[in-house]
Amino acid sequence: MAKKEKKVKKEKRQRPDLLAFWKNWDDGQKTGFIRITGIALAIFAIFALVSMASYMMTWRQDQSLLRDPAMMDSAHDVANLGGKLGLKLADLFICRWFGIGSFALLILVAAAARRLVTGTRRHSLLRLALSTMTGAFILSLVAAFVGKILGLQ
Hints:
Order of helices and strands: HHHHH
Helix content: 55-70%
Low-confidence stretches: none
Distance between the termini: 81 Å
C-alpha cells in the first residue's frame, strides 16, 4: 500500500492594501471625503455640460484646431466656452464616442454627484444607468437617422 503524499499549500503572496488609509479613517473623515468627491464630480458634470452645449454651437469654428498638434499653445483662441480642455472633452464625447446621446450620460453623472454630496438614496443608480444608456443609444440612433434624411452627413 502506497503512502499518500501530502500536498504542500502554496503560500499566498501578501498584496499591498490599497485602501488601508480608508480603514483608518473615522466616520467624519469618510463622509467629508465622499462629499468632496461628489462636489468634484458635480463640477465635472457642469463643466462637461457647458462644454458640450457650446460645442454644439461652435464646432465649425473649432474643428480645424482639433487636428492641429500645437492647439494647446496660447496663440490659438477657441470659441468653446469650456476653453481648449472643454473643446477636447466635448469632441471626445460627442464626435468620437456617443454623439448627442452623451448628454444623457450627464444625467447619470449628476445623479451620482448628488448622491455623494447629499448621502440620500432616493433612486437606484443601476436603474438610472440602464435608462440613461438606453436613452443615449436611442437618441444617437434617432439623430443619425434624422441627419441622414436631412443630408447633414
